Amino acid sequence: MEDIYILGIESSCDDTSAAVLKNGIILSNVTASQEVHKAYGGVVPELASRAHQQNVVPVVDQALARAGITKEQLSAVAFTRGPGLMGSLLVGVSFAKGFARSLGIPLIDVNHLQGHVMAHFIKESEDDNHMPPFPFICLLVSGGNSQIVKVNAYNDMEVLGQTIDDAAGEAIDKCSKVMGLGYPGGPIIDKLARQGNPLAYKFAEPNVPGFDYSFSGLKTSFLYNMRKWVEEEPNFIENHKEDIAASLEHAIVDILMKKLRLAVKQTGIKHVAVAGGVSANNGLRNAFRDHAERYGWTIYIPKFSYTTDNAAMIASVGTFKYIDKDFTQIDVPAFSKVTFK
Ligand code: KG4
């Protein structure tokens, strides 16, 4: 059988990433993160697309060099079509189209969310076989999404529940902003939480039916509590930041796991994966391990480098689509709206 070399390109938000997979096995995964947004406390779309423009060629060059292959060896180019920021997406989409066309090889469009889920199929080596069997349940948690997905096949994903307002990562980032911490807040909260008491403070719990999530009530109750406690004790946040972080993380993990348990119970599917930026969180990872032990789940936790936006996950979907000869026409547009299709 011919070897399948897929170049993945990801540029949906503020990371420019390129990766090469050979028959699903990782050869390289290069990501340029954009520091420019730190000063603004969030991603500035126009600055993001300008940075992608500067980064895309060197990042692809490095991905090919680290993979030890020439561009002529590539079988296809897979790229993130959406959802994401339109200006950011356009850089990767246009580059992928031009590159594939110039090499005379197929173009493969990939849904970013499916990419996150399929990060579990990136092989580290020939004998790496720890992958979930279909169907499995995936908790997809990032800065833009919080969803429980039933994954029937690489191209057949059913959203069982999702947030009706903020995403989990967004809530963490906003609360950390209230605390005066840097951006993104997720990793900072994670680090502080490891030294704090998760039961020190309580915040409002959502009451949403079914498998859906809500984080805006928690965020508001966090803000109001902080205001009140700072009024009573001006250095409250500085004096108790570890306990606050641990309690916030505990509240969010609790909300996420409650609905996930319900989904596992109702579907009877005990193969459970986690994906997306927030899956880097140690509290969430520990909760997964605890559930595996307590409820007999088989769990799938991605490597840290595959939790946040990366092109290896895009190349992973690309490999599946290449085998099915599911190629994309050159006139396909990028899309910004959140969808799994
Ligand atoms: O998947 P991702 O890189 O980007 C989106 O597509 O949204 O996720 C970014 C989100 C941010 O909200 C960030 O704060 C959060 O993931 N995050 C974390 C951790 N690392 C990143 N949240 C909690 N703990 C972490 N260790």
TrEMBL record:
Name assigned to this protein: tRNA N6-adenosine threonylcarbamoyltransferase
Binding site residues for Fe cation: 112, 116, 309
CDD domains assigned to the protein according to its UniProt record, in alphabetical order: ASKHA_NBD_TsaD_bac
The keyword Iron is assigned to this record: yes
Keywords: Acyltransferase, Cytoplasm, Hydrolase, Iron, Metal-binding, Protease, Transferase, tRNA processing
Name of encoding gene: tsaD
Alphabetized Gene3D superfamilies for the sequence: 3.30.420.40
Cofactors (names): Fe(2+)
Subcellular localization(s) per the UniProt record: Cytoplasm
Species, as recorded: Prevotella veroralis F0319
Entry note: cofactor: Binds 1 Fe(2+) ion per subunit.
Transmembrane segments: none
Sequence positions that bind substrate: 140-144, 173, 186, 190, 281
Reactions this protein catalyses: L-threonylcarbamoyladenylate + adenosine(37) in tRNA = N(6)-L-threonylcarbamoyladenosine(37) in tRNA + AMP + H(+)
Domain Gcp-like: 26-315
E.C. code: 2.3.1.234
Enzyme superclass (EC): transferase
NCBIfam families per record: gcp_kae1, T6A_TsaD_YgjD
Entry GO CC: cytoplasm
Any GO BP annotation: proteolysis
Pfam families listed in its UniProt record: TsaD
Biological role: Required for the formation of a threonylcarbamoyl group on adenosine at position 37 (t(6)A37) in tRNAs that read codons beginning with adenine. Is involved in the transfer of the threonylcarbamoyl moiety of threonylcarbamoyl-AMP (TC-AMP) to the N6 group of A37, together with TsaE and TsaB. TsaD likely plays a direct catalytic role in this reaction.
Top-level division of the source organism's lineage: Bacteria
GO-annotated molecular function: iron ion binding; peptidase activity; tRNA N(6)-L-threonylcarbamoyladenine synthase activity
Family statement: Belongs to the KAE1 / TsaD family.
